Amino acid sequence: MLGMSPWFSAAATLPQLRGGWGLDAFQGSWLTLAVQLGFVAGAVVSAVLNLADRAQPRVLIATGALLAATSNAALLL
To answer: What is the rounded CA–CA span in Å between residue 74 and residue 77?
Structure first.
């Protein structure tokens, strides 16, 4: 369940990000859209590479969660 939390991270923290980064409403909506498109792109790549049949489910989910956490942490830099 926690592996799905990055999906909502931009929307949940948008007011703080807008204030901290000086974003207007339009830029904030693009930030949320970028997160959604990133997840869609990841799903498409996973389907095209047939990762669900090639990798063990535990490894696939753990790797995806780790990549999502790393991407969120990179926003702090």
So the answer is: 5
Residue 27 lies in a domain: yes
- pLDDT of 3 reads 66
- Whether residue 39 lies inside any domain: the answer is yes
- Angle between helix 9-21 and helix 25-48 axes, rounded to 10 deg: 140
In angstroms, rounded to a whole number, what is the distance separating the alpha carbons of residues 70 and 77? 11
pLDDT for 48 equals 96
Whole-angstrom distance, CA of residue 7 vs CA of residue 74: 16
pLDDT averaged over the chain? 86
Q: Which domain holds residue 58?
A: 8-74
Alpha-carbon span 31 to 37, nearest angstrom: 10
Is the model more confident about 33 or about 76? 33
Whole-angstrom distance, CA of residue 21 vs CA of residue 51: 36
